[in-house]
Amino acid sequence: VLPYFVSDEEAKALLAAVDANAWDTTIKRRVQHYGHAFDYARLTIAEGGDVPELPSFCAGVVRRIAESGLMPEQVNQLTINEYEPGVGIALHVDTHSAFEDGIAAVTLGSGLVMEFRRPQLIGAACSSAGSPPAEASQKNVWLPPNSLLVMSGEARYAWQHGIAWRKTDCLEEGEVLPRSRRVSLTFRRARGRPCDCRWPSMCDGQNPETLVLPSRLGPNSATESSAPEGN
């Protein structure tokens, strides 16, 4: 996590630019997609048609992400998610077959705690989707306003991440912080080839059973687990 990745002034301008565009209300939280659109019904990027460029309002952010050297490849897809207080997202791993290594997320507005969970499998040789789970490793990470979160390698491919449905967060020091509106800008690179990562137990390309398609979509769905892609 890189704090102060964007300035307060830049964050204000980014939020204004985001809110000037139309929101997609297909799922419970409001989203916007640029570059490759994400298909929530199939949990993959939409195919066919021309792929538009990323919007000009995020050009500076994209340039600085590339200059940081933290992302393995240049990004070409942007998903914007809005989280009002009390709204969360189920623990998930971004679909391997849809996106390359490297996920970069900028937090605008409210900070919050993101949960990370590393499912463990019994036995070193266990790698199939049907293997029984053992105890998982878990970490909570505070994402401050204007920060950049980068996940790559094992963090991208094997650790689940999610946001609890609550209106406050408790930091390690015991401080309780109320949430307000958070808008995240998540940058990724669409995958143009099969995934052959080193984490087959979490990979829908090597273990198709790991891809659980949503049974329900829409703003009135009872849970958000049916549309997990986001940060």
Radius of gyration, taken over Cα atoms and rounded to an integer in Å: 17 Å
Oligomer: single chain
Report the principal-axis shape.
Answer: globular
For the largest beta-sheet, the strand count, sense and barrel status come to: 5 strands, antiparallel
Helix content: 10-25%
Contiguous low-pLDDT stretches (5 residues minimum) are 122-133, 220-226
Strand residue content: 25-35%
* Cα end-to-end separation: 13 Å
Task: Give a count of the beta strands, DSSP E runs of length 2 or more.
Answer: 13
Number of helices: 3
How many structural domains can be distinguished in the coordinates? 1
Give the strand order of the largest sheet, numbering strands 1, 2, ... along the chain. 1-4-13-6-9
Second-tier CATH architecture: Sandwich
**Integer average pLDDT:** 87
Specify the CATH class.
Answer: Mainly Beta
GO molecular function: demethylase activity; oxidoreductase activity
InterPro entries: AlkB-like, AlkB-like_sf, ALKBH4, Oxoglu/Fe-dep_dioxygenase_dom
Domain Fe2OG dioxygenase: 74-191
Protein name: Fe2OG dioxygenase domain-containing protein
Task: Give structural notes.
The chain is globular, with a radius of gyration of 17 Å. Residues 122-133 and 220-226 have low confidence and may be disordered. The protein has helices at 8-19, 59-68, 154-157, and strands at 31-35, 38-39, 44-45, 77-83, 89-92, 103-109, 112-121, 133-143, 148-151, 160-163, 168-170, 176-178, 182-188. A hairpin with a 4-residue loop joins strand 2 (38-39) and strand 3 (44-45). The chain has one domain: Sandwich (Jelly Rolls). 31% of the residues are buried. It is mainly beta and 231 residues long. The protein is built from three helices and 13 strands. 11% of the residues lie in helices and 30% in strands. The chain has a five-stranded antiparallel β-sheet. Strands 5-10-7-8 form a four-stranded antiparallel β-sheet. GO terms for molecular function: demethylase activity; oxidoreductase activity. InterPro entries: AlkB-like (IPR027450), AlkB-like_sf (IPR037151), ALKBH4 (IPR032857), Oxoglu/Fe-dep_dioxygenase_dom (IPR005123). Residues 74-191 form the Fe2OG dioxygenase domain.
